[in-house]
Amino acid sequence: MEGVVGQSGHLVGIIGAGPAGLYAAQKLSEAGVYVVLFNQDIKPGGLAEYGIFPTKYKMKEGLRKQFRRILAHPRVEYYGNCRVGEKGALTLDDLHALGLDALICAAGAQGTKSLGLPGEEAVGVVHAKDLVYHYNRLPPFSQQQFAIGKRVAIVGMGNVMIDIAHYLLQLRHDVAEVIVVARRGPAERRYDAKEYTYVEPFVDQTALRHEIERLRPHLAAVGQDTTALIAAMTTATPPARPAGAPGRLVFRFLASPVEILSTPDGRVCGLRVEENRLVLHNETLTARGTGTYMEIPLDSVIFAIGDCVDETIGLPYAHGTFLTKPDASTAEQASAVYQVYDPIRHRVLDHTYVVGWSRQASDGLVGKAKQDAERGVDTVLRELATVPTPTARVVAARRQAVQRLVEERCGYPVTREDITLLEGAEQHMATQAQLADYKFDSNEAMIKAINSRKIARG
């Protein structure tokens, strides 16, 4: 708080320090608002730190540089290792009691979406987010063991599927085959063409041609050109497969999972799917079951079907989404989508907002999170303009109250100064091990590294 206690301004709390939370903090601080970031992880960055494929070093470091500049702003304070929610060290009531002028939830989509299929409890069923966190070394997922066999199905056809397939086929050489199971057809694939290049060396081109050709009657029925799709998705000269990575990638389109099959000892042994057909109605394309079923022998099933919000944060929610104001007029809509709505009292919660994936789970990547956060902050700033600006004395007292509460409730709150020490320790470890990047894989190891640097610094 040094250097700014003589200035007045509003004080806004942000839950979550991923891209949405950090970019919201940037825009608020540049507008003269004081910001306190509460992050359940020790390190900031969220999915930019723990969701991007681990070998994309240049992309990750570019984002880290941006985030360092945001955290360095004198109006921004950071408290990592400090979870907010019904199961956290702090609750929403605790934060409101601090006298914050606004509270923004930017905690992302930390809940797990489920299809509710019979057999989902079997050993070998994995949710994509958990596995992504595992290979990106986010505690506690970094220390968990996942039962991944030789033949793996990934349910879903977006960019997360690409990342999971990339990990399985390039970094886990014990995986022999990855089968992408998609409810719709090849024309409805949702991954980016650029991302597809990472897994294209593993695609069984012959099998892909046969799979699309198998669908010709279904595709023709809705006006899709099978020959054009084959030309767009396959190549006669695929990129060379990396040495020591023997696995292959195949697709199964127009297939909806209905049951996970398991052995008597509870391990995955297959996936039962219903075959679909495409239906075009009022320019909307949907997949409908045909009543025909088949079984795919497997060792593991990974769901890459998106995520939902963490319901335990304490905000009103339904169907895995925090609730915002319904039935807003066109003029109100730009603000209403960011304001949290209480359906019991039939009113918007005072000065409480959601941005990023907390507003719309699994929607877009870092760029979209930034855009959504900045639009949400526009709404916050308009509301703050109607609230009297606290005096410098009041602001200082509120910030000190936040610090006292965090130090009292959170076991080891991590500040932005601590993050600088941690990054220095990680860079040292990377240099010693001749690695492009290094991460401690437990909170205990990170805290130990921070304390060691503090002692060394004197």
Which labels suit this protein?
Rossmann fold; FAD/NAD(P)-binding domain; 2 domains; 6-stranded mixed sheet; 15 helices; 36% helix; globular
Low-confidence stretches: 1-6
Q: Considering DSSP H and I runs of 4 or more, what fraction of the residues is helical?
A: 25-40%
CATH architecture verdict of the largest domain? 3-Layer(aba) Sandwich
Count the E strands. 18
CATH superfamily assignment of the largest domain? NAD(P)-binding Rossmann-like Domain
Taking the sheet with the most strands, its summary is: 6 strands, mixed
Number of domains: 2
- Determine the CATH topology of the largest domain: Rossmann fold
From the alpha carbons, calculate the radius of gyration and give it in angstroms. 24 Å
